[in-house]
Amino acid sequence: MLSKEELIERVQQLESHVIQLRNLLKPKLTLNTHGEKNNAKVFDHKKYAKRHVLLQVAYVGWDYAGFVVQEHTEKTIEAELFKALERTRLVESRETSNYHRCGRTDKGVSSFGQAVSLDLRSNLSEGKGVFVPDGHQAKLGNTDEIAYVGILNKVLPPEIRVVAWAPVDKTFSARFDCGQRTYHYYFPKANLDIQSMRIAAQYLIGEHDFRNFCKMDVGNGVVKFHRRIIDIQIEAVDNSSDSYSMIRLKLIGKAFLWHQVRCIVAILFLVGKGNEEPTIIQELLDVESNPRKPQYGMASEVPLNLFTCTYSGEDFQWIYDVETLQYVISGYQTLWADSSIKATMLREMLDSLENLAGTKVENHLKGLVHGIEPKTYLPLMKRQKCGMLNLPAESFLTLPLWMHRHSVATAHSNSTMKRNLRYLVAWTVIQGSGFCNHLPIADVDMLDSPIGDAYFPIRNILFNDSSETAQ
């Protein structure tokens, strides 16, 4: 049990961590090739109007640390996107861009249809999504909008491309206005019984408590595990029928839990290999009888793709540019050629080895499931179970009296709501509840800021927000 002084020191450590995060997000000085400050004239954003838009962002995430900006690395999709946005002067800063993203994909996960909404510089003075902020003076008479997609793709890394854009109302949010999300997961057929996997997958359709099909995310405030799967399909990608043919699992839903898709795939693999019956899905969904998740390895993140984020509305329409699409296609063809050549080379080597051995070895899935595969398979329901989930949100809303006397002073903590939230964060950390496993969330002042949307999960409890995407 920590003493009062140790508890206060713990809170102060969290404050230091928040300061580090703020420093990370501060706009960096532009340097020239010699490392000196660029003396170019400062760009005046006040001479332009702004436009609230939705961008479709595609990326191959295998070599990135995930989508969301992180403190310990700049190798994230979001960090690269904002570098490009600031370099092209489309935004002044992330903090002033009214930024929302549809989902936050994990390390190694890719996307064809990630969507982000934000305010960009505009050449126009009127039109859908166009507005003139206080103190700005828009140029009149322009009829051509900035070629957002084209100029961004010129400065983005080759793995990241903007595919399309759409003008939207100022209140539109890429996250909260998303109607449904579609994930694709690719894997070789190997020796899997695809038909059994299809039968098992059908049990997943509908609204269920998926606590046995996810990684417990109480650190992000998620204590409700009901989600609705709209459809799930398992189909061949190519016309090949051998064990090297590729299969695509397509899963559609409105929102997902952390690692939900990868956990679902891992269980379906067990069914496909004949280790479990298709009805294992029903057993795991019956949380009354099986409230504790059996231990099993997750499927790999590399084959996972957030393929589409769907939006509706009579006047909503993506804007595509043929020339820009050709540029995107050409770049991704280069990446495809590199990967395809390597795959073809390995396939020929494997064919030769199998001819020499005189037998087929169907171990294609070995690298697609985390963990060590035991020599003797132990059925899921006989395995060791995870601890009971017993974290009602209301139990974390009562603070000790001394906590009310020891506020955490910051420059922006005047609001009673924010101050109380700060107490809540500090106390849940001290309790060891796991609600604050990710330290950056301790900065309550970021609740309504763009970065707050990424890092502040306590809103999930207070505002019953369960629409964040997680894999």
Can you tell me about this structure?
- Residues 29-36, 392-416 and 429-468 have low confidence and may be disordered.
- Helix 4 crosses helix 5.
- The two termini are 35 Å apart.
- Strands 1, 2, 3, 4, 5, 6, 7, 8, 9 and 10 form a 10-stranded mixed beta sheet that branches.
- The protein is globular.
- It has 2 domains: 4-19 and 390-462, no CATH class; 47-387, Alpha-Beta Plaits (2-Layer Sandwich).
- It is of the alpha+beta class and 471 residues long.
- The protein has 11 helices and 10 strands.
The first-level CATH class name of the largest domain = Alpha Beta
Cα shape? globular
What ranges have pLDDT less than 50 throughout 5 or more consecutive residues?
Answer: 29-36, 392-416, 429-468
> What CATH architecture of the largest domain would you give?
2-Layer Sandwich
Structural class comes to alpha+beta
Global mean pLDDT: 81
What separation lies between the terminal Cα atoms?
35 Å
> What is the fourth-level CATH superfamily of the largest domain?
Pseudouridine synthase I, catalytic domain, C-terminal subdomain
Largest sheet: 10 strands, mixed
What is the N-to-C succession of helices and strands? HEHEEEHEEHEEEHHEHHHHH
What is the percent of helical residues?
A: 25-40%
Look up the CATH topology of the largest domain. Alpha-Beta Plaits
Number of helices: 11
Query: What Rg, in angstroms, do the CA atoms define?
Result: 25 Å
Total number of beta strands: 10
Number of separate domains: 2
Note the beta-strand portion: 15-25%
